[in-house]
Amino acid sequence: MGHENLKEKLINRFKQFLKGAKENTLLFYHSDADGLTASVIMAKTFEKLGNEAPLALPAEYFETEKMLSAFEKHKPANVIFLDIAIDSKPKVVQKIEKHAKLLVIDHHKISNDISSEKTVFIKPQMLSAIEPSRYPASKLCFDLCSSLINLKKEAWIACVGIIGDKSAKQWREFLNKTSKENNVSIEELKCIAELVEAVKVVAPESFAELFELFYFLSPKQILKHPLNEMREKLNEALKEWQERFEKEAEYYSKLELYFFVMKPEFPIKSALIDRLTEKYPDKTIIIVEDLEEQKLRFSARRQDFKVKMNELLEKAAQGIPKSDAGGHIPAAAGSIPRGYLKEFKENLLNILKEVYRKEK
């Protein structure tokens, strides 16, 4: 079967799933701008199709137990995962498949092909030649749902996801067109993406509230919401930690690596590293965040694709118990138990030494 036929078959399966999901649907979305906006687009599609609204819950990639307990509590007939690489946990998929149909829309690398009679599994690499990390779940969701209904008025929601996932360059034309048609400036869309990031970092307990803001309010109304105070709080913290990074980060010039361990008041590493990678796009930046929990969390960035961040972190965490790592080529993240920082760092340095040795 040719590639076009496979694409058509996949899109048809997607349409059948949505048309059949009339009621009792549980939707898990990654708690960031991309996952949030993908979930709102999906919920809007359900409304326009006359389906019962899905119960939408934010989650992190590693919160498998939280997702399974929500599944057991609500006993849905249909489950949707958006911007969550659940294909890396096939046993979880198999558990859910015993009781429900699944739809997975995600843009990370393919870990396992979880397609089955009960699971519709969609990633950009199945439909497009665009690098998956540059094809956010929000845009993929928008494109897929637009094959069923008219979402022109909701296009701005996808734009916030695109900006939040650092893919504006790839979708510049779409952003400009939407800005004109939806009467919202690119600057306003950027501010809304900043709001999502700020709430996630400074007031995570309010993150689920953002879903309702996006669902019911216009961009201009969102920017007047009291939660915007969080943007200022985040910017102040980012300024302080960026200065500390410049002074305190370890730099390994032969490996083009910045390594930084931080103990912030709230989880700021992702927002900080996104700023830093704009300044150092051709360097590997790794930030380890210590929030005095059982696990240390880390993020990695590099924009020139010289070193694959997802593979680097996955290999560095290998053999460390209760660790997890993954993501995209230019951006990845994970966690390790707090007693394994030294081993993790040594692994990173050894892997990078090998990468650069092969280059010579």
TrEMBL record:
Domain annotation DDH: ranges: 27-146
Protein's name according to its UniProt entry: Uncharacterized protein
Gene source species: Candidatus Iainarchaeum sp
Gene Ontology molecular function terms on file: exonuclease activity; nucleic acid binding
Cross-referenced InterPro entries: DDH_dom, DHH_sf, DHHA1_dom, SSDNA_exonuclease_RecJ
Stretches assigned to the DHHA1 domain: 271-355
